Structures are given as C-alpha cells and as structure tokens.
Amino acid sequence: MTTTLQTPLASCATIEPRELGILAEAGFRTAGDILMHLPRRHEDRRRFDGFDSLSGGAPVCLRVRVTDTGWKFIPKMRYFQADVEDSRGIPGARLSLKWFHMPYVGKIIATGQELVIYGKPKKYGSSYSIVNPEFEIIEQESAGLRLAEASLGGSLPPAPAAAEAPAGIHMERIVPVYPSISGIPARRLRTIVHTVVHSLPDDLPSPGYDIAPQYPYAQALRDIHFPAETPLVRKARMRFALAECFEQQLRILWKRHHSRRTPGQITATTSHLVQELAESLPFSLTEAQKRCVREIYRDMKQPHPMNRLVQGDVGSGKTMVALCAMLLAVESGKQAVLMAPTQILAEQHYNNFRRILAPLDVRLSLRTSDRRDDSHIDIEGPDDGEPKIIVGTHALLYEKNAPGNLGLAVIDEQHKFGVEQREKLVRRGNAPDVLVMTATPIPRTLTLTLYGDLDVSLVDELPKGRGEITTVLRPRKALDKIQTFLREQIEAGRQIYIVSPLIEENDKRKTASATAEYDYWQQQFPDISVGLLHGRMSPEEKDAVMQQYRNNETAILVATTVVEVGVDVPNATVMIINNAESYGLSQLHQLRGRIGRGEHRSWCILLSDAKAGDDNRRKLDVMCSTINGFEIAEEDFKLRGPGDVLGTAQSGFGRVRFMEWLSDTRLIHRGRDMATAILETDPGLNLPQHAPLRDLIADDSAEPTTS
Q1: Fold of the CATH domain 272-459
Q2: Which SUPFAM superfamilies would you find in this protein's record (predicted)?
Q3: What residues contact 201, with CB distance under 8 A and at least 6 apart?
Q4: Rg of the Cα atoms in the chain
Q5: I need a labelling partner for 586 at 20 to 30 A (CA). Which of 54, 110, 388, 486 fits?
Q6: What is the rounded distance in angstroms from the CA atom of residue 102 to the CA atom of residue 619?
Q7: 591, 594, 597, 602: CA torsion to nearest 10
Q8: Could you give the CA distance from residue 79 to residue 186 in angstroms, rounded to a whole number?
Q9: Where are the extended beta strands (E) located within 202-356?
Q10: What is the model's pLDDT at position 500?
C-alpha cells in the first residue's frame, strides 16, 4: 500500500497497540500528523563537540564516559550527579552532570556507560557542570550500537517489543531531537518518524496548492527530519515556510479584495464637528494624529466599508483619533460605538468624551454589563432621540444594547477580543466602517503578516508636555530606600501605583499579592491614604476606588494588572511593579504607560531578584534601556512570539509551524507577490488548478496545509 499523509499510523509503521493509543491521545493518528511533529533541533553525531568547547558558554553535544555517580545533598534538596570524561580518552576539563527532580535518572545511569549529552555548561572554579542535560545511553553490543535513551522530564516506559530501527538512525549521522510525547521514549519516537517518512513515495503529491514543484514534497519532509547535511534543514524549512506565507497572504488578500467589493455606506460627508472639536481643545493635535484623521476621513467617504487599524505607542493619543472618526460618523447622521475590553476603560473613555464633547452637544451613552437597561444608561446631550456615540464593553454585543443606525464600530485593544466578538459587533450594522486600535505596537516587519487585510494608520508621535520616564531595576531588599523616595513624591503632591501579579497570596508561588501589599503599605504609611483595586471587586467598588484616585484623595493605589490598559491619571508619577520578571515585555510597557502622562518626571521601579545573564534579567534590562514601544514589542516577539504577546490563538492570526515571524520578512513579501499574481489572473479562483485554493479560502480558520 502506498503511504500518503492520510494513511493511519498503524498501516505505515510497526507500532504496538499501546503506542498507537498513546499517540492517538496526543493527536497523532496519521502519517501526516506525526510528520508535522517537527524536530526542535538536530545534533550532528558524526562530529561531537570536544571538552575544549565547554568554555564557550553555548550548548554543547558531547559523547562522554561516566567515571563516577552518586546522590548529592544540599539544604532541602538532593540531586543525582554523574562525573564524566571525554569518551575518546582525551584529557580535558572536569565535567559533572547534575539532575534535579528527576529521581529515575539515578536508576539508569551507571559508571562505565557511554552517553550522548546535550546542555549548556557553566563553570564553577576549575570544573564545569551541566544541569538537567538531555541524554542518551550508548550500550555496546555484539549486534552493533544500541541506544537506550531518556528524555528530559519524564519516567521511562517499558521498551517496546516491536522491531527496533537500525543504529544508523541514532548515531553517526545528523540526528533529529523531537519535543517529547509522554509515554513514547525519544529513541522510539525517532524510529517511528524515520519509518514513516521513508515510506513516502517520491512522487507524493503536495497537500493543497504546490508552490514549489521543483522541490518534491516528500524529499522536503525527509530533509527536515533526517537531513544528509545540515543546510538541508534550512532549505526544507524555507520551502514549507514559503507555503505558509503564501496561504496566509492569499487569505488576507482575498478578504481584503471582497471587503472592498462589499457595498457600504458613506459615513463621512463633512468634517465640521472635528474642526469644532479641535478648536475647543486646550491643546493641539499632533501632526501624526492629524495625518491619521485625514486617512480615516478619506476611507469613510468611500462607498465600501473602511477596515483600518490605528496603532501607536502608549500615550500617543489614539483615542483622540478614534473620537474624531466617531464625530465624522455622527455628522453624517450615523451612530458610532466604541467597545473597550474592561469596564474601567469603558467608563474612563465615556467620562473623557463627556467632558471633551460638552461644547458640541453630542448625545452620549454608556453601556456595560452592569448597565444594560435603559433606565440605568447615563445619557448626555439634547433629548433628540437615540444617542450618537455609544461607549461600552462586550455588553454592546447583546441585542438590547445594539445601536439602531450603526455607521462606525471602534474596537479598542482589539487583540483582547476574539474574532467572533469583533464580527458580532460589526454585524450590528449594515456594513459599517470598522476602526480597530491597539496599544501593543506591532513591529513593522509583522504588520503585513498580522494585519495585511487592514489599512494601517500609525500614531508615531507623542503629545508635547509629557514628563520624562526613568525605569530602574531594584531588588526587593531595596524597599527601605524606595520608601523614602515614595514619601518625597507624595509630599510633593504626586501619586503612586504599586502593581502585583496576584490578588491574594498563593503558597505555590512566592509572588507578591495585591492584598498583602495593601496591608504592607498601610503599615509603612499609616498617615497616607492607600487604595486597593483588583478584578474581583464589584463595578461599584472599582468606580469608587478609581474616582478617589483620580481626585487625589488616595495617594497610593495598590492594584493588579486591572490598571494595565487605558487608566489615565496625569498626577501619578511612580509605578512599582512587584515580581517584574513574571510579566511579558509588552505588558510591562503597558503598565509603565500609566505614568508619565502629565508634565512631571516619572519613575518606573521594577522589583525583581532575577539573576544577571538569565532571560528574565535580559527582559528587564530591555525595559530599563528604552521607552520605545516598537523596540520593546520586537524584543517581546523574539522572546515569546506573537501568540503569547497578542493572543493570536483567539485573535484570528492562526498557527504557523515553519514561518519565523521576525526573520522571514522576505518570504512573507514573496508569498504576497505569489498570491497577488494568482488573484490578478484568476480573481474568483475558478481555474481547475486553483481548486485547492478555493477550499483553503472556504475554510479560512484551517491551519496551514504546508503545501
């Protein structure tokens, strides 16, 4: 039987029923499933590193012989240690392997064994250690090399009775190292993948649309799993990544094309209200804000719906741009809504709009989950019927709160909403214009990938008169000196934020909690008003706390990340972030954006005991070195990827296996050019050879086919 990507695993490899059950439970049922379980790295076991490479500070792959083993004890902990030497007998540095929290290792490693190990060495005095290295045990047998391996972080199941693969899969070649599957030893997994990938016919058709017929699909799969030479791994990855970029860009261009063919309503006729607003403000709009308003005005005059993203750094004035857009809709006789992710932010927008729009007599409404009934809706403006601007939370998605004449939908912090929620709001109107905003700046190299179906306006200028922000990293033990500084700030009339990652103490996490910090700071400053704000409080309680803080009736506000987005108190000049290492870079930058919103100099104090050299410390060092949100976002994307930074799993960006978000810019543009060429020659994708593309477009929630 010819193996295809749809062939059940039981039919293309010798696998025990127990193993088939484990693999099926993990989501691996077919040949295609297991072949998309990609190696996380390759080891060149033709040429091992030598002990002279230990001092380089980079991970090493060594072939070693165990000279001594034993359990070692330190306070409240024990670990298993194996002392090793170069298996070739070449004299070199002393190296110890240490396994913590892995008791099974002590049962399978013994003096005299040879190991293949992988890990990052650290120097202690004149010797080196590798903590929790990955390893395989090499046993010499008359039948040839046999490897009994152990993977990091799991107990070893019994060896399968099924036929083992030849030793050439595991040694004397470039060897793939896979993410572990609980219950399947790494060597066994490697054997299964090797059997499956080499059972594919050379002429295996590419799934979906074949973007690289000159590089056969089956060969690319073999190269990415078991390459003959290291460069073939990159070549295969580039082939599959280009396919992902192409499919992604085709979806984006198709959506953009059909959006522009959808008849809409002209929601901007004149701009008198915007001009009146600008004249009534006590400040001038920045040139960046004016440019963005002009771009929006141009879009809203078109007969098709606007789909535009406004992005900019924290405090750059995106909300004012959105308000101008809403006034354009109002002037054309339409309603505009702004949906915010939290009640605190929605109420802040509403209160600010009410103050700013007072001279214009524009009727406003606030609609949140706590205020759905008309009797509880706070209405401002002349009593001439329906409200013109509606500000709310996800409560806007309910039928009772739906606007009757929607012309513009503004979605603030759009990545905090799911795709279905955004689309549900848009469906409340007849093809309304859509404006989405984000204060998590997207690196320019990614805008095409993540928002290619939107036009993008960039607010790349901060309003004048903002105070300088200084960011410093301090250990927790420095609190005494910090307290003196805080009192100086409070006596000068300024206010303080103190942010903690948890609401209450947790025995499992040695992390500062908001409630414990609230008690602590009340004790330290008994003569100063301290407030507490967190997500479990009722809307009324949150309102009261925030109003006291805005009125400077509270000098210190202890909070969780509920203050992360949109909270605007210009008098707040200090933010202390407890356990700063537990946040992502973009979230830290968002939190820091709550200060420096007035004319006074501000300070962000990151409290952390992160050690120099580790990833957490490097992240915090970035925060201290720049206040540029785009630079911070780019570093955050490198560290965590868009999925974690933007919540892409629920935000419609889809999963990619091969594409590297920041480094594959050229592939993204190439994929877009390929998709553009196809749509220009066949806009409806009606040609027979484009049938797979029609299927792809029909199911735009599908994962990449990696053609």
Answers
A1: Rossmann fold (3.40.50)
A2: Nucleic acid-binding proteins, P-loop containing nucleoside triphosphate hydrolases
A3: 2, 3, 218
A4: 30
A5: 486
A6: 29
A7: -70
A8: 23
A9: 307-312, 335-339
A10: 92
d(CA 678, CA 684): 10
41-177 under CATH 2.40.50.140, yes or no: yes
d(CA 673, CA 651): 25
Q: Give the closest residue to 265 by CA, choosing from 438, 458, 453, 426.
A: 426
Nearest CA among 502, 442, 457 for reference residue 646: 442
pLDDT for the residue 707: 64
Task: Tally helices (H) and strands (E) across the chain.
Answer: 22, 24
In a 3-state reduction of DSSP, which class is residue 466?
coil
- At a CB cut-off of 8 Å and minimum separation 6, what does 285 contact? 278, 293, 317, 320
Phi, psi of 591 (to 5 degrees): -60, -45
518 phi and psi angles, rounded to 5 deg: -60, -45
Planar angle of CA 88, 89, 95, nearest 5 degrees: 100
Facing residues of 68 across strands?
83
Q: What is the pLDDT of residues 125-153, one digit of tens each?
A: 888 999 999 888 886 543 334 444 444 43
CATH of region 476-608: 3.40.50.300
Residues forming CATH 3.40.50.300 domain(s) in the chain: 272-459, 476-608
Q: Taking the mean position of all CA atoms in its chain, how far away is CA 358?
A: 40
Inter-CA distances, 525 with 495, 596, 644, Å: 13, 24, 38
Tokens of 439: 């204060």
Query: In terms of DSSP H, where are the helices of 281-402?
Result: 287-300, 318-331, 343-356
CB atoms within 10 A of CB 654: 18
The single-letter code of the amino acid at 36 is: M
Angle at 113 between CA 111 and CA 115, to 5 degrees: 125
The answer to whether 387 and 364 are in contact (CB under 8 A) is yes
Instruction: Give every residue of the chain whose pLDDT is below 50, as ranges.
Output: 141-167, 372-379, 648-652, 701
If you search the block for the tokens 């791994």, which residue do you land on? 233
User: Dihedral angle at the C-alpha atoms of 470, 474, 477, 483, nearest 10 degrees?
Assistant: 0
Any idea of the CA torsion for 271, 276, 278, 283, to the nearest 10 degrees? 180
What phi and psi, each to the nearest 5 degrees, are found at residue 273? Answer: -65, -40
Numbered ranges of CATH 2.40.50.140 in the chain: 41-177
Q: Which two tokens stand for residue 214?
A: 């000159």
3 state DSSP class of 305: coil
Start-to-end C-alpha separation, the chain: 23
411 is written with which tokens?
């979605």
| Strand positions, DSSP E, 521-633 | 530-533, 556-559, 572-577, 602-607
Q: What is the pLDDT of residues 271-295, one digit of tens each?
A: 899 999 999 998 899 999 999 999 9
Beta strands in 592-698 (DSSP E): 602-607
Rounded distance between C-alpha atoms, residue 440 and residue 586, angstroms: 7
Q: Which residue is listed with tokens 């949100």?
A: 629
What is the value of pTM for the model shown?
0.71
Q: Among candidates 565, 518, 503, which has minimal Cα distance to 343?
A: 565
Q: Answer whether 293's CB lies under 8 Å from 324's CB.
A: yes
Of the CA atoms within 13 Å of residue 701, those in its CB half-sphere come to 6
